[in-house]
Amino acid sequence: MNSPYSQKIVQPDISLTICGYSKVLEIVSNKWTGLVIYAMEDGIIRYGDMRRRIEGISKKMLTQTLRQLERDGLVNRKITPAVPPIVEYSLSGLGESLLVPMKALNQWTKENYSQVELARENYDRINSGE
User: Fold this and answer.
1) Which residues pair with residue 75 across a beta bridge?
2) Which residue numbers delimit the HTH hxlR-type domain (predicted)?
């Protein structure tokens, strides 16, 4: 069988700097990012409410994740002067558009992750004697 890649590759044709997949993974690969985005899926949410919704996230990680998402243009932050200040977050239009592929990936996970776990178990069983 002759693969189109069987010939000698002179220069890389897959690159971290130009690959669209790697660029989006840079945004969503943090373990908290997807959870934070999902916490805002239904609209405006206050910081404390978001922290209570996301199991295991620290104040520091939530703050860092929100700041990065705001920097990336995915999240809007609104501060209402009060004592203490009221800080609300919501997805921007760009952030809402990211929900579409994230939901598709979530659906793939629901349908297929058990097969991944089974493959891992089989691999570990076969390769445990190495």
Assistant:
1) 91
2) 19-117
Q: What backbone torsions phi and psi does residue 9 show, to the nearest 5 degrees?
A: -85, 125
* Class of the CATH domain delimited by 20-126: mainly alpha
Write the burial class of residue 91 (CB in 10 Å: 0-12 exposed, 13-18 middle, 19+ buried): buried
**In the structure encoding, which two tokens stand for residue 38, read together?**
């999902």
Q: Which residue has the tokens 């971290």?
A: 16
User: 9 near 24, Cβ under 8 Å?
Assistant: no
User: Is it true that the peptide bond before 85 is cis, omega within 30 degrees of 0?
Assistant: no
Domain boundary assignment for the chain: 20-126
The pLDDT value recorded for residue 5 is: 62
For the sheet with 86-91, list strands across it: 45-46, 86-91, 75-80
What's the average pLDDT block by block, 10 residues per block, for the chain (130 residues)? 66 77 82 95 96 96 97 96 93 96 93 97 90
